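Chapter review: from sequence to fold.
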Amino acid sequence: MGWEEWRDSRKDGYGLDVTNPTSDTALMDAIHKEDTEMVKKILKEQKIERAKEERSSSETAGRSYANDSSKKDPYCSSSNQIIKPCKREEKRVTIHMMSESKNGKLILLPSSIEELLRLASEKFGGCNFTKITNADNAEIDDLNVIWDGDHLYFSSN
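The token string follows.
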């Protein structure tokens, strides 16, 4: 059996078309045959296909998925949700004055400790805060240790 006959005998196995130049099977066949030109062509076409898929998926990122339960937020009970793309680095934290731990304010975590201290000062009437601690009373000196949903406590000492 020659190469082409063998390849044709594999066509439509499990619904796959090995003659499709973007399929992984076609790539494996070209590698097996040591056809470097075909390998280059297939890889180039696969790259183009991936770019098209990425473009189309980014266009639908902000659309409503109300009828698609796989895209719903498991913590939201609304049946008419819209999944918005969100930045991973955005963290929501609750800030408190050390003396008033019950009255917190929910904020988006800023990009620096200085900006966080300024924002807390602004939210709590101009107090001059110098120290940030978490719920376990551990001092915070780096924003990377703060998790989404943390409660932060501000004091002047």
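Two observations follow directly from the output. The helical segments are 3-9, 24-33, 36-59, 113-123. The first strand starts at residue 92 and ends at 97.
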